[in-house]
Design goal:
Elements: H1 17-31, E1 43-50, E2 59-64, E3 69-72, E4 84-87
Antiparallel strand pairs: 1-2, 2-3, 3-4
């Protein structure tokens, strides 16, 4: 198996910002879903991390400014359960992965 640089079949057309904006306005409203009404002011990192709880559903992980890390377990309905504290002392780290 050798290395192959991928070459496009034809050059890309110019970017149509108006068409992109129209697509976003029509599409994003249909797929966006609010999962929490009030995140509060204390969170500095919120990420989707996959299945942390081992139940086969995607979970959310968040960190507050004091360094506490919590998980919101995912549900089948696409919503998330109440947060559960899973760690502390993470305030000095730049990111969670």
């Amino acid at each position: 198996m050798g290395f192959s640089a991928q070459m496009p079949a034809r050059p890309a057309a110019e970017r149509d910002e108006d068409a992109i904006t129209a697509w976003q306005e029509a599409t994003w409203q249909a797929v966006r879903k609010e999962v929490f009404a009030d995140w509060g002011q204390g969170y500095n990192t919120i990420i989707g991390v996959g299945d942390v709880t081992g139940d086969g559903k995607a979970d959310l992980l968040e960190r507050d400014s004091a360094g506490n890390v919590r998980v919101n377990p995912g549900h089948d309905s696409g919503t998330f359960g109440a947060r559960i504290k899973v760690g502390a002392g993470w305030q000095n780290y730049l990111n969670l992965y």
